[in-house]
Amino acid sequence: MTLSNSIDRGPLFFRDRDWHPAAYTPGYKTSMTRAPFRPLVSLGSTLSEETGPAFGHSMIGELDNNLIMNFTGQPAIGERIIMHGRVLDENGRGVPNTLVEIWQANAGGRYRHKKDGYQAPLDPNFGGCGRTLTGPDGAYEFLTVRPGAYPWPNHVNSWRPMHIHISVFGSGFGQRLITQMYFEGDPLIAKCPIVNTIGQENAIEALVAPLDMNRAIPMDCLAYKFDIVLRGRRQSFFENRTEGL
Amino acid sequence: MMQKLDYLKETPSQTAGPYVHIGLTPNALGIPGIYPVDLGRSPVRDGARGERITITGRVIDGAGMVLRDALFETWQADADGIYPGNDPRGAADPNVTGWARVAADFDTGIWRLDTIKPGRVPFPDGRPMAPHINVWLVARGVNLGLQTRICFDDEEQANAECPVLTRIEHKARIPTLLAKKTGPGEYSFDFRLQGEDETVFFDI
């Protein structure tokens, strides 16, 4: 058990559901039949959501966070980028030793999935996924190629901006989150029906990673910085007294 | 002027999309070679205490279609109601990892979870909750992962006392959280995302 696990036991902060996308967002058509219509039953966190799966370092391979090399050992084609940042909680504390998984299209905008029929070619050396554990300060890093934009059948001429899917754990099951990182300056972000499931402009901005020239490696790759914020915990500051007193 | 309440905001959710399996279960999708095994293949190991159970079911949308691209994760306590990892009450059965990743079959949409029936876990006020498996479900078209629970229809007494189930105001909806016993150690459970028998989802 890590130190963080022994601290992070308190009730989770409530979710701001106006900040997240609503379930029913007709601009993104698939949500129309998959969104619950009934009100969610308000519960608040219990031990079931405050505890969570722990992962050991032993499972993570040396190349797991290197999407350029982790599929065949031969380099994938495309613009090489570093994606890095920290996993934090709403109190601004790093979340150490937690699993971050990513997946993405290749440089041409094609996924390695039998259902993806886009005419851009598959790259024989690009699998499209990676994973890593955060360090003691919550930091993570991936080496990958910049994913291409691609068309999809939502409305006529819908295109997804360049994006990387991200799955994060945290220290409690109620913190579980999947999101997407977008790239600074991409004109397709504002037009994307999935991006626009989010109602608030500053919430959308929280998903756009800035170009980070301090982390770029000369003559090698550019870097993008993307911090991920998980739900905070209420008890953190009151560990020496019983909840509710 | 007052001080600012400068907490960070949680990163907004986005749909897992149709290709979530590339990232989370690449081997099951037919992309071998990146990871030796997919994570979360089983929440229990041989020797885990408790009743072995299998739950099978489907995820169904508001048009009655069975989703073949759904993926969910489960998190559960051991047979004594202790969570593995960071439960403040103590250590769980070492053969219970508690967490599983369950993908619907790409052709039929049917999923299957082999596990043990969990014990009762206390609600924050100390009352025991009914035995339950926690679920977090994602799919294309789901903008924020859905949180729910699988309880069991053969736990009448525990269900009747459960502070979570009894909190559900519309009693007719409680059966949407109950896995139906179909045989010794066998249960069936469908998630319904929308419609008449919509599953109860929680705001946690």
The fraction of residues assigned to DSSP E strands of chain A is: 15-25%
Beta strand count of chain B: 11
Q: How large, in whole angstroms, is the Cα Rg of chain A?
A: 19 Å
Q: Give the spatial strand order of the biggest sheet of chain B.
A: 4-3-6-7-8-9-1-5
Output the helix-strand order of chain A.
HHEHEEEEEEEEHEEE
Number of helices of chain B: 3
Mean pLDDT metric of chain B: 97
Measure the end-to-end span of chain B. Answer: 34 Å
Distance between the termini of chain A: 28 Å
As a percent range, the share of helical residues of chain B equals under 10%
Task: Please provide a written account of the structure.
The complex is a heterodimer of chains A (245) and B (204). Chain A is mainly beta. Chain A contains four helices and twelve strands; from the N terminus they run ααβαββββββββαβββ. The two termini of chain A are 28 Å apart. The relative contact order of chain A is 0.23. Chain B is mainly beta. In chain B, 7% of the residues lie in helices and 25% in strands. Chain B has helices at 20-24, 26-29, 156-161, and strands at residues 52-57, 59-60, 71-75, 99-103, 111-116, 133-138, 146-152, 178-183, 186-188, 191-192, 202-203. In chain B, the strands form two sheets. In chain B, strands 4-3-6-7-8-9-1-5 form an eight-stranded mixed beta sheet. Chain B has a two-stranded parallel sheet with strand order 2-10. In chain B, α3 links the parallel β7 (146-152) and β8 (178-183). Chain B is globular, with a radius of gyration of 18 Å. Classes of the chains: A mainly beta (245), B mainly beta (204). The interface between A and B is large, with 91 and 78 residues. β1 of chain A pairs parallel with β11 (202-203) of chain B.
